[in-house]
Amino acid sequence: MMSWSELEKACLDCTKCALYETRTNVVFGVGNKNAEVLLVGEGPGEQEDLKGEPFVGRAGQLLDDMLKIINLDRKRNIYIANIVKCRPPKNRDPLNTEQDACIDYLRGQFRLLKPKIVVCLGRIAAMRLIGENFKITQEHGKWFEKDGVQFMALYHPAALLRDPRRRPETFVDLKELERVIRETAPGTYLIP
Ligand code: SF4
């Protein structure tokens, strides 16, 4: 099994799909490498591509604010990654072929992290990690267990910026996430 640094190096050098041609930076992931909670988005946007870090634009700020409500912080007690590590041009959805090419990096991160809880940020990540027929409007905030790991999806923060009416539902989902973290991944709240 690759170490974190071997995996990151392989990813930073990757040319396995055409997205490498247009990227500025590979966006490998950020956070605590011992976290019990993994958050997964679909792929980097413009700001993320420029900075090399996931969720750093306006949507990223909203995500940080949401997580703060339940005492989660990318600098402390979670890890954040994406399905594809390079930005799809014009922020289109990553193609299935691109996701297939890239998914082994996320699998590697998953193996190293061994999270107890995985939170999918948005429909694309949920369709990839929970089930291809996942319906975000109906199934956000619900739990799905796979091999002893609890999966849940939240609305993508960019969707919440577009449609603030969904924020109250997301608040309920966050409180549910906090409840299950306290039950299943209590170490999350013990990290100083
Ligand atoms: S998106 Fe993934 S598979 Fe494609 S070039 Fe970037 S790191 Fe490699």
Topology:
Layout lengths: L3 H9 L17 E2 L5 E5 L4 H6 L6 H12 L9 E4 L13 H18 L3 E5 L1 H7 L6 H4 L4 E3 L2 E6 L2 H6 L4 H18 L8
Parallel strand pairs: 2-3, 2-4, 4-6
Antiparallel strand pairs: 1-3, 5-6
This protein binds iron/sulfur cluster.
**What is Rg?**
15 Å
The class by helix and strand makeup works out as: alpha/beta
**CATH classification, class level:** Alpha Beta
DSSP strand tally = 6
The average pLDDT value, as a whole number, equals 97
Which CATH architecture would you pick?
3-Layer(aba) Sandwich
Measure the end-to-end span: 29 Å
| Strand/helix succession | HEEHHEHEHHEEHH
Shape: globular
Strand order of the largest sheet: 1-3-2-4-6-5
CATH-defined topology: Uracil-DNA Glycosylase, subunit E
Tell me which ligands are bound.
iron/sulfur cluster
Classified in CATH, the superfamily is Uracil-DNA glycosylase-like domain
- Runs in which pLDDT lies below 50 for 5 or more consecutive residues are none
Largest sheet: 6 strands, mixed
Report strand %.
Answer: 5-15%
Please estimate the helix content. 40-55%
Total discrete domains: 1
Provide a count of the helices: 8
Oligomer: single chain
